[in-house]
Write a structure and sequence with these properties.
Number of domains of chain A: 4
Helix content of chain A: 25-40%
CATH topology of the largest domain in chain A: Vanillyl-alcohol Oxidase, Chain A, domain 3
Distance between the termini of chain A: 28 Å
Number of helices of chain A: 17
CATH architecture of the largest domain in chain A: 3-Layer(aba) Sandwich
Number of strands of chain A: 18
Oligomer: homodimer
Radius of gyration of chain A: 22 Å
Structural class of chain A: alpha+beta
Largest sheet of chain A: 7 strands, antiparallel
CATH superfamily of the largest domain in chain A: FAD-linked oxidases, C-terminal domain
Chain lengths: 463, 463
């Protein structure tokens, strides 16, 4: 672990004058901030600061900039591509104490929150008003982190990703200016779309400190269902046909037999250990019933068996918490293992083919690899379970992922549907978009000429 | 009218060597390309070229760049803020002959088209497959132009604007490179969102030559309705309550009594000449019926009278063509007049207040000003009918629009919901977004260092 070598005393003094005890160089805190949920080795920052306001973030940026010190924004560390690693040291700006919901406009169906508010916290604070924030990546990530990584998750097929659900941002730029990217109306044609430029920029163009998001009325009726299939193809084809019929399904998750086995072991449930769809329908009572009947019929045509309903809130919660725990359940398939998570996304017409070919690759692997994902978007994940101290495992995982990315790219897909580029997929991005990456480098140089904002992520500047 | 002074013989020779007779300096063609649907005076280009492919556009850009000559992309000239005016002369790149639908992926619900394909043409070519492209700004604009101006229109409340419906673009950059901004999956977290950066950039960052858009299954049932109200407040409040209930209404247009009068005169219809809502519902038979009943009840609570249904396709078409002709119908209220179109958009909770205050301003005006708009988005238009040869009219219109923009900005709104900045709203953009415009200028300088791509639009570089 690197020592806080880079930080000269003056920088620390200036930060401390600004934030007092909310500056630390303690080893434990630095270690905690030097990793995310990915398999990448620790890369701790030299110091961690905990600002409470946009103005404090601005002042931290100004100080770091004067000292030419890298800055790494941090939410709750749930990212999956090494986004928060301090590869070049520097100051980690932990935004988790910026956790106030600043405004809820129930009539406008929007809310403005500080970047450190988590999605569950936001949902708790708006539930009494009959509102919800639907973007749900599983982990209880911060809204700022979700915006920074263009997160999505199980509800995206109906409600979109962070791209569609962020209305405006407050950003501190690399030159320590506070910029509001847009005002609050639903739509605008006022100039370049700065909001969308910062959504998904992973802290490399500026630091998101406040986020205005869209909210939705909690539907009158919500009902979930589980259905198992003889093969993955049947499950995926069911979802594709559903979308082609224009049925506005809210969630559609496919899980392989191995994932179901892990879920059963972890949750003491008794699902069939076969390829399975978890579905959810939102709407009016009658609308939900109608949607569900149509989908049940489509599922039956594709070999679906034993449609089971979960209409009571507690049953729905149990079902989705089982889905959300797939990651932790999967880890238990190989005690002591860490997961290398893949994240390809392809046009849905190619999804069955992509999953079938990937399943064949899984069958040849030396380790267990559960597969599950957001099939309504064409996005699925493989959890490659590696032993952290076995370099051969990691090599095998990387080779598997590279084959998977190449397969997805050959099918007009993307190397990342929702996890982002981070440190891990810079090469894949270049393979995917070619010359467009030159434009991204130009953007990075324009917004961050000193390369201090989360350096080493998204693009390589030495290319 | 300026002469083709700037273009030296070499430039014309090079363009002619490339495109033959698809290069012209004829006065008539230049005049036609020197204006759009706005009230701005002619500013014709020095030459007009008609490329057929991305490669030809690239070669035109390369030639113009070498000669330091401005380039103005042009679709069918339906923009409303002087986007196509050749303020500094130069070469107009008319993309209307790039009108091939390149690929329709019915299974993936997307299509890739050349920029000159119009939205009606696209809809005709996909209807047989049960598909539709819903973004509908009224005019039969090109898909490329709609992407360039971030267009939306009557369906945006349900289906989103071009921001949400463009999956990927092919763009020719200012340095004559062909860049594909993204691949074809529904979602991606692969790097900076170049697609959204070019959507709404109005030809100032590069020239859009191909567009991949989302398609939707034509709903099983569609039904439209007309309902009149004693006042505009009742109409607008009906829509707001509908949205707050989460009812997925497809279109909701409010029109003032004067607009209804103009429509009746133009179409020989007999609508009540009162504030009116035009509504549309998409879904299954049962779903549409249920939505419509809920909305009818909400309308009744807000003083709605005489709900009239249009379920047959021909009745729906008549209704929406009446809505789309509101612009041309409005022009007939004052023979010989041109329209200054306003375009503010506010959070919906402020919409009633904004429309009520604006109506009071209309009552004081010396000219007729019909008002109508996409109230589900918070966006409405005033058509200020000016006599083109009366400078006092234009002055009054500009002052009216400035008051309206200031009113919208004071309500956290935007100066433009869907028409864009063009030549006309550069000052309003600065008022709206302040420091954020500095970032836009930096983007413009990065992507177009010689300021040749539709110069004088969106941002002022001398500021």
């Amino acid at each position: 672990m690197n020592k806080p070598r880079e930080l000269d005393a003056t920088l620390l003094e200036e930060l401390t004058a600004l934030l007092g005890s909310r500056v630390t160089t303690s080893r434990g805190v630095r270690e905690h901030h030097g990793k995310d949920e990915s398999y990448y080795p620790y890369a701790p920052p030299d110091a961690v600061v905990f600002p409470h306001s946009t103005e404090e973030v601005r002042d931290v940026v100004e100080i770091c900039r004067r000292h030419r010190t890298p800055m790494i924004p941090y939410g709750v560390g749930t990212s999956l591509e090494g986004h928060v690693l301090a590869a070049n040291g520097g100051v980690c700006i932990d935004l988790s104490q910026m956790n106030r919901v600043l405004a809820v406009h129930a009539d406008d169906l929007d809310a403005t929150v500080q970047a450190g508010v988590t999605r569950k916290q936001l949902n708790e604070e708006i539930r009494h008003a009959g509102l919800m924030f639907p973007v749900d990546p599983g982990a209880d990530a911060t809204v700022g982190g979700m915006a920074a990584t263009r997160a999505s998750g199980t509800n995206a097929v109906r409600y979109g990703t962070m791209r569609e659900n962020v209305l405006a941002l407050t950003v501190v730029t690399a030159d320590a200016r506070v910029v509001r990217t847009a005002r609050r109306p639903r739509k605008s044609a006022a100039g370049y779309d700065l909001t969308r430029l910062f959504v998904g920029s992973e802290g490399t163009l500026g630091i998101i400190t406040e986020v205005t998001v869209r909210l939705y009325a909690i539907p009158e009726a919500m009902s979930a269902a589980v259905c198992s299939f003889r093969d993955m193809k049947g499950a995926v084809d069911t979802v594709i046909r559903t979308l082609q019929h224009g049925i506005p399904i809210a969630r559609s998750e496919a899980l392989c037999g191995l994932t179901m086995k892990a879920i059963n072991a972890y949750n003491k449930t008794a699902y069939k250990e076969q390829p399975t769809l978890f579905l959810e329908f939102h709407g009016t009572e009658a609308g939900v019933r109608e949607q569900a009947e149509l989908v049940q019929e489509i599922a039956r045509e594709h070999g679906g068996e034993g449609f089971e309903w979960a209409t009571r809130p507690e049953d729905r919660t149990r079902l989705w918490s089982a889905r959300h725990q797939a990651y932790f359940a999967g880890l238990q398939l190989r005690p002591g293992a860490r997961a290398v998570s893949t994240d390809v996304c392809v046009p849905i017409s190619r999804l069955t083919e992509c999953i079938v070919e990937t399943s064949a690759d899984i069958a040849r692997a030396s380790m267990p690899i559960p597969l599950f994902g957001h099939v309504g978007d064409g996005n699925f994940h493989c959890m490659i379970l590696v032993r952290p101290d076995e370099p051969a495992d990691l090599e095998e995982a990387k080779a598997f992922n590279e084959r998977l990315v190449n397969r997805a790219l050959a099918m007009e897909g993307t190397c990342t549907g929702e996890h982002g580029i981070g440190s891990g997929k810079i090469g894949s991005l270049e393979k995917e978009l070619g010359d467009a990456v030159d434009l991204m480098r130009a953007l990075k140089r324009t917004f961050d000429p000193l390369n201090l904002m989360n350096p080493g992520k998204v693009v390589r500047l030495d290319a």
